[in-house]
Write a structure and sequence with these properties.
The protein is built from ten helices and no strands. With 196 residues, it is an all-alpha fold. The longest helix is centred in the C-terminal third of the chain and has 30 residues.
């Protein structure tokens, strides 16, 4: 159930899938659906986002899932939700994930529990380069005049902010400021009309 456009994008990302047989793709689909309690549409969405899933060995996938569950004390349901949101988790090396965890905990003074809550909410965080995370932190602190502590509280509440593009955030910030000014003008007009 893939469109031609979707299939072409997948091939551009992962040309080796052209060498897969129909039987191996069907077997892989059944494996993922059973292993992670996926519906057909979940699986299709996942391979569209991460075509390399079709080439991963089943034992490797199972081992990676066990690593995440053990490392972050995740239930099977927690991990299944994370994998649906960000299937690329299965491509990350364990050492890389551990290093990202240590970096985030140190950089933002997070407890292990804080970090786990963040990745449950925004698993893509594990794929971000450290430099990118630091740049995004500096951007938010400057754009919204935040202290480091205020920024940390903000991302603990909504870690997906680290994934937003700076131009998009600046645009939303301007919209909100404009709304505030519009409301001030409306209230000012209302007051002036009462006074007259």
């Amino acid at each position: 159930n893939l469109s031609s456009e979707d299939f072409i994008k997948m091939i551009k990302t992962m040309p080796t899938i052209l060498g897969l047989t129909e039987e191996s793709v069907k077997a892989k689909a059944e494996f993922y659906k059973k292993e992670f309690n996926l519906r057909d549409e979940d699986f299709i969405k996942m391979i569209k986002a991460t075509p390399s899933l079709l080439t991963l060995a089943e034992e490797s996938v199972k081992a990676k899932a066990e690593f995440y569950k053990k490392e972050f004390n995740l239930s099977r349901e927690d991990f299944n939700k994370m994998i649906k949101a960000f299937p690329g988790l299965l491509n990350h090396a364990e050492e890389s994930v551990k290093a990202k965890e240590e970096f985030c905990k140190k950089e933002f003074n997070l407890s292990g529990e804080d970090f786990i809550k963040m990745i449950k909410s925004f698993p893509a965080l594990l794929s971000y380069a450290e430099e990118s995370i630091i740049e995004k932190a500096e951007f938010y602190k400057k754009e919204f005049n935040l202290s480091s502590e205020e920024f940390i509280e903000m991302i603990k509440t909504m870690p997906a902010l680290l994934g937003y593009g700076e131009e998009s955030v600046k645009g939303k910030h301007r919209q909100i400021e404009d709304l505030g000014r519009s409301e001030e003008r409306r209230v000012g007009k209302e007051c002036r009309s009462r006074w007259s």
